[in-house]
Every structure is written in structure tokens, then in C-alpha cells.
Design a protein that fits this description.
Layout lengths: L2 H17 L27 E3 L1 H5 L7 H12 L5 E7 L3 E6 L1 H14 L13 E5 L11 H19 L3 E8 L4 H14 L12 H16 L10 H26 L6 E4 H6 L2 H11 L3 E4 L2 E4 L10 E4 L7 H14 L4 E6 L4 H13 L8 E5 L3 E5 L2 E2 L12 H8 L1 H9 L7 E4 H4 L7 H21 L16 H11 L1 H11 L3 H19 L14 H23 L9
Parallel strand pairs: 4-5, 4-10, 5-6, 10-11, 12-14
Antiparallel strand pairs: 1-3, 2-3, 7-8, 8-9, 12-13
Amino acid sequence: MTPDQLSQALADALAAAVADGTFALDPADVPAHVHLERPRQREHGDWATNVALQLAKKAGTNPRAMAEELVRRLSGTPGVAAVEIAGPGFLNIRLDTAAAGELARTIVEQGVAYGRNDSEAGHRVNLEFVSANPTGPLHIGGVRWAAVGDSLARVLEASGADVTREYYFNDHGAQIDKFARSLVARARGLEAPEDGYGGQYITDIADRVIADAAVAGEPDPRTLGDAEATEAFRARGVELMFAEIKQSLHDFGVDFDVYFHEDSLHESGAVERAVARLRELGHMFDADGATWLRTTDFGDDKDRVVLKSDGEAAYIAGDIAYYLDKRERGFDRVVMMLGADHHGYVGRMRAVAAAFGDDPDVHLEILIGQLVNLVRDGQPVRMSKRAGTVVTIDDLVDAVGVDAARYSLARSSADSAIDLDLDLLAKATNENPVFYVQYAHARTSNIARNAADAGVRREDGFDASVLDHETEAVLLGQLADFPRVVAQAATLREPHRVARYLEQLAGAFHKWYDAKRYVLPQGDEAVTDVHRTRLWLTEATRQVLANGLGLLGVSAPERM
């Protein structure tokens, strides 16, 4: 019996009690699926629910009385061995061994579909992440968002959402001006401007701009006037830098559906249209020669200048137009993943959403990520040979590889700072979380290979009742929990829950196998359904490990 089947049995029992008048409950209040949880203590059963506590008052009874009625109605349900009442009305449910073990076959038969759910079905999600300025290689903060953002997109898709991965290409404004001036200075053999960019990458890009001009038969951009030179280095330099960022992300396993250019908002008139819309809605006002958005009406700490007194658009103007553009493209969930220095951005963007008539608690989500610190030999890693002042995506991948980098960045809550121990992540030991999980998958693959050599074929038999060891009950319980973990990770926007789950699953598998739950016949022992059924359980574990690692964009190796 799967958790979904048990949930449905509970829902059916509730519906029947309402239909025959036992519970004075509006049929609309009967949940389609009853929420189940794993009890903290294994001896309390396989599953628990507090549905009686949730519905008793509406049903005109007390929780314990409702629980007693549900116990009566669940008695005799195929696969349910016992139902007990705990405390004021909790239900602890124990499945019989065969019903619990049947899950192994269900998982293998469902394959890559196991764990997928419809908790986010019907939502069109625009997920914007990374969006680093194309003024230098992607640094470690952006790398964290690459790992977390892509994992979140995968989790949301596995939960039924229609997700568009979007990168906001900041090719407009002061930072790009500084980048262009830095390239010109370096190309002419001068020091970078005081507020400019340094690092070897500036020299590399400046040299490529010059070389590209020569190949194209164009004048040496160094010889142009300052304004022309700046524009020449800006146009080609930004293009080269962004191409490099895109390639680094691709090599990291992260690709975007949309690369949205900030410049297009200003060139297309999108900013003017957004301002006009807000003026029509009565939320714009003019003061001191500037045009303002009255964001204080929507909880912001102060009103915001949108168009300056000189007619130039303030930074928020692009944000306003960009939000409106996303909503007009049909996205009902606009999710933005921002760095630790963007806390002040939250209030004003919520106000923008509200000014357009949206519900900021529904249509807009802003996730703030905290800092990442790299440590090697117990000391902070602070410098990149190429970037000069920061550690880049390529530095991290060179140090530990894509899998370890992605997994380690995605396994912690994004709103907490983390320290990554580069020495630990390079180790092939169980201390290294990604190795621990990947090794579990490789171990299941090795067992399957050895089973084939020994003539153990799962298609020759399955007897769920033989999975009666305590370690098997624990392992089956972990496997059963995977769909709930995926759905919860999607709902809470916390893909790290998948990683932590995988570590628990790997531990349960290792403990089961180390308890000598033989899959292979020993000595002259004949192959029986015990071996075949344990192979089903091994294959089920392998499938869930692979599915979970896939949600994190991490490989599931068959050999290590």
C-alpha cells in the first residue's frame, strides 16, 4: 500500500461518514487527500495523521470521538494491520508487512515518474535566478543561485508546474559603463579607473576585442576617440563576458529558457508603458521635477523616484517594467532569487506588485540567499587567479567538480550562510555528503550486476511478505516518503530538503544491506523469492536515489 492509497482510504472513510450522517460535516470540507506523516518513533507505526484534530470541530464532535469512528471504518481495509489512537486524537497506522513491501514493486514499475506529483499543477512560474552583471566571471554567490535555482526549477517541474528559467541580463547602467572604461584603460596600458574592474580577465577580454576588430578589418579600437573606444569595448566586451558566463553555467548543468536584456525595456518603451499604467491606476505623482511611485500606500518605507528630474529613468523603473512584462507574458508566479545585499529590494517590489493590482503573497516571491565561504586547510579561500578579488564558478568546479559543487551548494537552506570545505568535498569518504549518496547508488548498481551474474532475476518472483526485518521497514518507510518530500520542497521553495532526504535514504540503505539482508544466494543456496524480493527493494532504492539526484542536477554513477 502506498501513502497515496492509504490517504485515499482515509478520505473515503471520512466521505462515507459524512454521507451517512455520522459526521455533520460539509462534504466540501472533506479533503481529497488526507495528509500523512512518518511518526518520529518507529514503534508508533508506519504513518500518522491529525485529520481528526483538524475536522472534529466542524463535524460537531470531539477529535477523539472522530478518531474512534475512523478506526472502526478503517478496520478490515486491505493492507492495514492496525490503527491506534494517540493523545487527543492522532491516528497511528501500521501496515501489514506485505502491504508495506508492495511499495518496492510500485517504485520500480513507476521508474522515473516515482516522486512526481501535482502539488504545483496549473501554475506558470517565471523563475529568475543568477542574473549576475556581465562585468566579470560568475562569482561564488551567483554559483550558489545557479545550483539552488536550477534544483528548484526541477523540483517545481516534478510537482506539475510549468517553469521558465530566466536570466535578467543587466546590460544597461553604471556598472556596464565602469566595465567598458576598465577595458579601454587596460587596452591602452593604463591603470583601471578607481571605480573600475581589475583582474586578469579584463586584460583577456580587452585583448580579444582588439583581435576581433583586426580579424573583421575594423580600426584598432584603442586608437578611437574616448567615446567611440568606450562604446566599441562596451559592445563587444559585454558580449564576450556574457558568452563566457553562459558557457560556465552550461558546463555547470544550468541552462536558461530566456535571457532577458534590461536594455530592451528602455529601448522598446516598456518603461514608459509601465509608468503610464501606474499613472492610470492613480499611483504616480510628480514632485520636485521628478515622477514618483507612491509605494508607501503598499507598505514600503518610502515613496520611490521612477523618473528623475533630468528625465532619466531611475533603477526601479526597469524593475517595474520587467515585473509587468512577466505578468503580461502569462506567469502567475514571479519568483526572483536575489543575493544577501538585496533585502531592501523586497518591500519596494511587493509594493510594485500591489500597485499593479496583484497580491504580493501570491504573484510575487522573492527569495534571499546568504553568503558562501570557501575553506581549504582550515583557512578562507579569498582570491581567484583570474578574477583577482573573488572566487569564480570555474575555480570551484576545478577544485571539487560539478557534482560536489552543485550538491554542496543545494543541500543547505538558501537563507543561511554556509562554509564549504574544499578538502572535504574532494574526499571519497562517507564524510563527504555527495560521495555518501552517490556511493549508495553505485552500491545498488553493483548489487544488481552481481545479482544478474548469480541468476537472481526480479521478474521471476516477488513476495512482499518476506520484507519483515526492522531495517527493511525503515528503508521502505524512507522510500515511501519521497513524493511527500518533493512536494514539500516545491511548496516551500526549499530544494535542500531533497538532498537531506537522500542522505537519510542512503543511510537506511547502507544499514539494511550491512545487516546482511542478502540479495545473492550464499554458497550452494538456491535462488528463492527472498533474494528476488530483496533485489526489487534494492532496485527501488536505486531508482529513488537516481530520481532525487536528478532533481539536484547531480549524476547517479553506477560505479565508483
